[in-house]
Amino acid sequence: MLGKGRGVTLADYHVHTNFSIDCKEPMEAQCRAAIAAGIAEIAFTEHVDHDECDRESLEAYNYAGYVAELERCRGLFGDQLTILRAAEIDWNRSIVDDVERFLAEHQFEFVIGSMHNLNHTYVGFGTLEQFGGARQMYEDYLDELEALVSTGFPNVVGHLDLPRRYHQVSMLELDAGYFEERLRRIFRIAAEQGVGFEINTSGLRKGYGVTYPEPDIIAWFVEEGGSIITVGSDSHFARDTGHSIPQMYAALQERGIDWRTSFVGGVESRVPLP
């Protein structure tokens, strides 16, 4: 089913279209951009939000329209591009029941579980002071992350250090040894639960010079028994689709990781990196 066969391929597993509230790019345009970038496998991971601060996003979500357009694009590009029905589902402990109901009523091949909010505030909208300072922000964020992976619900966790994108401080800059051990404990739980992690390349195109997380952190995940890894651009514009995917494959290979995970047809499989 892969656009270039089930061998070595480039894949972008985090892409948005105008079925996400913060994106205006049509799915067809994203497909054409992916093909131009050499992508053979793409997951359209539209935002699904249930937190009270995201009411507008949930009301705008259109599953039936999304599925119809995805099937149309499969018809147009199926000989060049494998398109996955997917979602990026926001998660925190206050909306567990909402997420479970949603998943019971909708079908996907691939699901990213992301944490965008702390205390019902988007991490990019609140100040460090509102979150109790940088260290407390990360403590609270990792508490939620540990709870998330313990559920076993997502295929992968999205941008695990998302606060870094907005507040320009890494948890490892605050206390490298302590936060490494916290992450490794979370990775052990994730590995036991069959939950993976993505490398989100959005920080590279935004000029921050980092991915979320960086490849060394994903290497810790593998050291702790993790076996599910995807790479995604988090594209909201056609010009960004596939951004830095080959570079991240090279970075993984430098760390002894020569595979990525595919979820075509909802079936988890390991694919060699080019």
Structure explained in plain terms:
The chain is an alpha/beta fold and 274 residues long. The protein has one domain (11-269): Metal-dependent hydrolases (TIM Barrel, Alpha-Beta Barrel), CATH 3.20.20. 40% of the residues lie in helices and 18% in strands. It has ten helices and eleven strands. Strands 1-2-3-4-7-8-9 form a seven-stranded parallel sheet. Helix 1 (27-36) runs parallel beside helix 3, helix 5 runs parallel beside helix 7 and helix 7 (171-193) packs across helix 9 (215-223). It is globular and about 50 Å long.
Task: Indicate how many domains the architecture comprises.
Answer: 1
CATH topology: TIM Barrel
Work out the helicity level: 40-55%
- Give the overall shape, derived from the CA principal axes: globular
Number of beta strands: 11
- Assess the beta-strand content as a share of residues: 15-25%
Q: Structural class from helices and strands? A: alpha/beta
User: Ranges with pLDDT <50 over ≥5 residues?
Assistant: 1-6
DSSP helical segment count:
10
The largest sheet, given as strand count, sense and whether it forms a barrel, is:
7 strands, parallel
Q: Radius of gyration, rounded?
A: 17 Å
Order of helices and strands: EHEHHEHEEEHEHHEHHEHEE
Arrangement of strands in the largest sheet: 1-2-3-4-7-8-9
Classified in CATH, the superfamily is Metal-dependent hydrolases
Distance between the termini: 18 Å
CATH class: Alpha Beta
- Output mean pLDDT: 95
CATH architecture: Alpha-Beta Barrel
Oligomeric state: single chain
Briefly characterize the structure.
The chain has 274 residues and is of the alpha/beta class.
